[in-house]
Amino acid sequence: MKVVELPNFVYPLAQSRFRHSEGARALASRGRMSERTIMKTAILGAMVLLGLSAHAQLVLNPGESWTYPFSSLPFVGNTNAFTTFPQGIFSFTVNGSTLQSGDLLSYEMFEGSSSLTPICSGTMTGSSPTTLSCSSPGAWQDREGTVRFTMVTGSVTVDTVALTAIVSGPSLSSFDVYSSTFTPVPEATGLFVFGALACAGWLWLRRGGHSETHFNFRKRSRPAAVNERPTSGL
Question: E strand or H helix at 4, and its extent?
């Protein structure tokens, strides 16, 4: 067997290419791990923020407002048609320990969007009862509407909100009652957007998606040897 000895310059080139390929793989792996770590952190952060928002109470500070549109109310029963009439009722309770002298809270109810003229409105002050209501005859017969708080001065915590629609039904002696009572939470439009992005990122991770950084190492070509013409003997 004939053994062919490679030129000396081949070995350094091979070692260099091996080192470059190993380095590229290591860098790409670190890049993928970094991207996945950042995405996981963002997802966990969004979940924490959304969880906190879901369990937070509605605290209104000067200049802040809270708007709540609704498109349906659950049926809860019937009421005597001889003691009431079809109407919409918006009532709420604030935390008594947060209602102080100088506080001024504005409340409004709308038949539809909050861009329309309010069908009922009022203000709560430091000397008001902690529970107030606003009603409008014939309102919310389609179980749709909007309510809004605006904190003019001071600061209060809203504990509960109740929305009620008394609607004419098939019976002449009773009306249908639709109502919902709940604890209001801060508006979190920005957090929901962030949460949606986080969910998209979660799906991206579930599908194994990742961005690889490609490193292109061009092989340096060795200059071609110059053919030397044989010189004639001296």
Answer: none
Whether 98 contacts 164, CB under 8 Å: no
pLDDT-derived band at 56, boundaries 50, 70, 90: confident
Task: Specify the higher pLDDT residue, 2 or 173.
Answer: 173
Count each helix (H run) and each strand (E run) in the chain, helices first: 2, 10
Domain count, the chain: 2
Residue 223 lies in a domain: no
Q: Which residues pair with 75 in a beta bridge?
A: 178
Domain co-membership, 96 together with 36 = no
> Using CA atoms, how far apart are residues 1 and 34, in angstroms rounded to an integer?
52
pLDDT band, very low/low/confident/very high, at 106 (cuts 50, 70, 90): very high
- Name the token pair of 221: 């070509």
- Are the C-beta atoms of 91 and 184 separated by less than 8 Å? no
Q: Where does the pLDDT of residue 34 fall: very low under 50, low under 70, confident under 90, or very high at 90 and above?
A: low
| Residues of the domain holding 30 | 13-53+191-206
